[in-house]
Design goal:
Number of helices: 23
Radius of gyration: 29 Å
Shape: globular
Helix content: 55-70%
Length: 525
Amino acid sequence: MHRRSVPGGDPTDMAANKTDRTPSILFPWKHGVGAQPSYVEELDGLKNWVEKTRDRGSKAFREYTAFDWCALFLPCLRWLRTYKIKEWLLWDLLAGISVGFMIIPQGMSYANIAGVPSVYGLYGAFLPLAVYALLGSSKQLGVGPVAVTSLLIGNGIRAMVPGSENIDNPNSPGSLAPLQDIYNHKVIQVAFLVACMYTGVGLLRLGFIVRFLSHSVITGFTSGAAIIIGMSQVRYILGYKVPRANTLYEIIEVLVAGRAGFKWKEFVMGLAMLCFLVALKQLSGRVKRLRWLGALGPILACAISIVAVAAGNLDRRGIKIVEKIPQGLPEPTITWWLPISNVGPMLGLSAVVMLVDLLESTSIARALARKHGYELSYNQEIVGLGIANFAGAMFNCYTTTGSFSRSAVNNSSGAKTQLAGFVTSLVVMFVLLFLTKVFELLPYNTMAAIIISGVMGLVEFDTALYLMKTHLRDFAVWLVAFFATLFLGIELGLAAAIGLALLIVIFESAFPHTAVLGRVDRTTV
């Protein structure tokens, strides 16, 4: 039977007819039709954030004085403006000189780990320090070459330059000089790429990426890397030449295989220097009045061994020495930046170096700022390190960052401002101009002893014990980072630790801890 519509008919039919006649609109939820999609709220939030940022920027632009604009590009003007000469100058001078005495032998030793001439370590302790003092925000951070990234660079570049593992002395490569030159070019190119990444992260305010590298990841990684570094230097103490290896069991294997080349003179001298350095560290840690001995230990060991070589002609009796260090300031290397071969591996190595450097430096700077009660500008810090590495890459320096040991010495010596870092760079400049001939007599066994004693403080088993008692997941990450670095190598060890840390973050996000709250009967609890 046909149904005829009449006025005042079924409301449902009327609503349906009305809906059918509704014209198509772009945003129906604004007209009360349908639900608002979730992404609209997110886009509105992003729009509000952009508007607030723009308003803050325009307000700052109007309120900035000429001094503020100058300080924006040269941050050192802020602390120079309020510098208390009578109260701070002496402390900054003492701290700068103390770190200078420490960084000279350390820089030369770390350059050996990276596979470049020893003078590159001095260059890295000179110009980047001066630039960071002008642009950095941490007052006590000790910048320069460090052990872990030196090992990363050494392992990474050797894999890209076949035959470079046969270079026994980068200062005097002999017939392998062309190969060493290619190797040096690649190291400078890595410094350039790291500088670009550093500066980009700072300018784009991407410093939050270091949060993916938790404390357990970095301490486990550095503990494993410290053992690899220390074991890689044992060959100089034993006095014989063995192939370079990347894992603990490979290092032990080549050391055992090469035992026939053992030289007792090298062993006695190297072991004596190592015991001397460890004894000074222990003494400075137990007696407060003698804490300065720990900082002066490396330079004292250098002085004793250089005098012994010069007095006894030990270089002619089987003691291996540096032999050659160019005198003068570094020459420009900006023309080495391009072209870059092996782009993929170079970018990968540079990214790993930048991440490790970034986390190490910012964690030290954050701890020092908290201890002394001043505010740390993270993006300024990252940009400052990036430009410092740019300056280094322009003048024969490989990558530099904040150092645990030198920052501790800088802090304990009473550094008040970044002027201490500038004083350190002047000390290194003096050595480059006038004392390179003296350091040519420095034995390799002494440099090895300096490295081994230095990396001992990077092995943090106490952190592992603390994590085991308080947070088992972080303890598992620490163990993975530590053992993977020891037995898989530096790069794979770090990748495994980061991967596990990210999986734990995803797991905790997917299954967050929840608690059911309620009221106890007949109470206010």
